[in-house]
Amino acid sequence: MRMDFPHPHFANCKVRASPHGGGGIRVRVPVRLPRLIGFLVVAVIGFSIPVGAVTGPAPVFKQIADGVYAYIGKRNDANALVIVTSQGVVLADTGNNNSDSRAILKDIQSVTNQPVRYIIITQNHGDHIGGTPLFSPPAQVILQERAAKNWAGWSQYQINSWRKRFAERAGALKDVNPLDTVISFASHMTLHLGGREIDLIYVDDKYNPGDVAVWLPKEGVLHASFAGYRERHPDIRPDYSHGTTEGMLKQLDAYIALKPRIMIPAHGPLGGVRDLSVMIDYLLLARHKVQDMMDRHMALPEIEKTFDMHEYRDWERTEHLSWTADTIYRELNGEGPLVIKSERKQVSGTVASAMDDGRFVTLKGDDGTEVHLRIGADTDVDGIADRTLVKPGMRLNAIYDVPENVNPALGYDAVQVTIQ
Ligand SMILES: [Zn+2]
Question: Cα–Cα distances in Å, from 324 out to 75, 111, 264, 289?
Fold first, then answer.
């Protein structure tokens, strides 16, 4: 079943998030100078990001308001938000890896007998949507309509991957299409469930791929969707698949206007409204740096190489930086998203290393080449229950995409992986 508005539990409500300042000019170029200068001044006099603020080696399930819990991923893996009501549980995001999804389910069952009734996807990426088939059906999945459109275009391998992701669910999902349980909305939706008000906020931008913030006005709790980052360089890409810095700035403005008491970032430790401002400072500084290099007529490859964010030296995922520079360069030039053509290739070999629960795998190909693969939530994995079981020494066959003219900083995306 696929539904659009209206639905018995939802009411088209006033938008509570109104971007203050809104206009395009302030995000075209970094003109928020007072804030930027203020930031640079504190940076110079010794402001530093607290060391070790990254989340710990094990996930944490923490109560943050009455009946409201945060699942904080290990080592800055994706977070999730759990809202318990007398009419079922609402879950925002579904866990970075299968192990997280199962842990979230167990954590929910440890605090309530209510079933998971709705899943909200705050950003349409594997580390946030991957656990959905563990809960749905029967849970219904709420997507912003751009994300729903993306799901409607999935290839068969992605649907196969979806159905097989959790071995214990294979039977139940055999004939289920991921779209069958989707409810989509355009700009905002309020979910009234068991006496709670849960606002879903989409901040419109040409390239917003369907990010949804989750706001509990009574509790002052906000899941800040893609724009909520702490201690981690954001994953912005030149194909705009994760939006743009301009779009992120709009989101951050809208979320700050809500004045959340507790902010759940997509990745990283719990924070508050101040952390959203830190991200604005970060993005403005990043845009300023790229603009400055463009003004000096540096070519893109040189900009990518030179770009650094040493002011945030303790943040993780520095491998995102070259893509960030590339994306900002395109944005400031008024270019649209990079259209990436790719060639499908096949490799057989032996696993040399498997990192991050099998997300990043290095393969020693039989022809002697080394191939870095990224096994995403939509990779069709055969021969083992899931990617977390990929171990060095295993024989592996992979079909993967090699993008043209793009530095595959995180590895080639695997379409299908078969353990022999
Ligand atoms: Zn993520």
Answer: 21, 40, 23, 11
Taking the centre of ligand 1 as the mean of its atom positions, its distance from the CA of residue 70, in whole angstroms, is 15
CA of residue 138 to ligand 1 center, whole Å: 25
- Say which CATH topology domain 343-419 has: OB fold (Dihydrolipoamide Acetyltransferase, E2P) (2.40.50)
Q: How far is the CA of 45 from the centre of ligand 1 (A)?
A: 33
pTM: predicted TM-score of the whole model, two decimal places: 0.81
CATH topology of domain 10-284: Metallo-beta-lactamase; Chain A (3.60.15)
* Residues 108/117, Cβ–Cβ less than 8 Å: no
* Band (106; pLDDT cuts 50, 70, 90): very high
Which region, left, alpha or beta, applies to residue 406 given φ > 0 means left and ψ of -120 to 50 means alpha?
Answer: beta
Q: For the chain, which residues make up each domain, given as ranges?
A: 10-284, 343-419
**196-231: per-residue pLDDT in tens?**
999 999 999 999 999 999 999 999 999 999 999 888
Q: Which residues contact 76 (CB under 8 A, 6 or more apart)?
A: 54, 55, 230, 231, 232, 267, 268, 316, 317
Which 8-state DSSP code applies to residue 167? G
